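sorry for the late reply, my laptop died twice this morning and i had to redo everyting from scratch. anyway the thing you sent over, i finally got around to it. pasting the sequence first so we're on the same page, its 202 residues, then the predicted structure underneath. double check i copied it right bc i was rushing
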Amino acid sequence: MKKNLLAVAVLCAMTSGAAFAQQAESPWLVRVRALHLDSANKDSTGLGLSVNNKTIPEVDITYFFNKNVAAELVLTVPQKHDVRAGSNNIGSLKHLPPSLLLQYHFDAPGFKPYVGAGVNYTRFSSVRFDPAVAAALNPSIDKNSFGAALQIGVDIPLTKNLSLNFDVKKVYIKTDVFSGGTKVGTFKVDPVLAGVGLGWRF
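ok and here's the structure:
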């Protein structure tokens, strides 16, 4: 009888300890990534519009509701792009594209893969056109874009709190293009963002 009670007590202690350790793990994860932005450049205006690809910094903040489900807020600073019509540089713009994604993190030994889906909001600013283009076409664009964001990635633990991260996102960004106030088509940036970085679980 005493042996049974002792076994139950040890089991309860071990279970309580594991539960406490799980509860003690912070739900917050912060990552810093370097991303390569590869634009799809889909243009229906007939002008052959495109923006340049570039490498940009990114910070994301992730909150875990439990060990598998999390929400990630993806942030960066406004990014400047050259705007081209065919091979001609016709101006520049900046865009700020934060995204909010809901993620599912899979249980796997040695690494932690995840998938995510959510929404992106992009704000275009500092839109400038070559004076000759501005005089001839009086161009303008819609400054706001809402679209879907899809994600797949993996965290590879390096220490208890530090992890190496690989991440790929497809983000749907578009803007309507106007000439003299008349819509002439839609330009879709729709970039693929491939990133690598480090994450810290607090």
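Helices lie at 2-24, 131-137.
thats about all i looked at so far, will dig more tmrw
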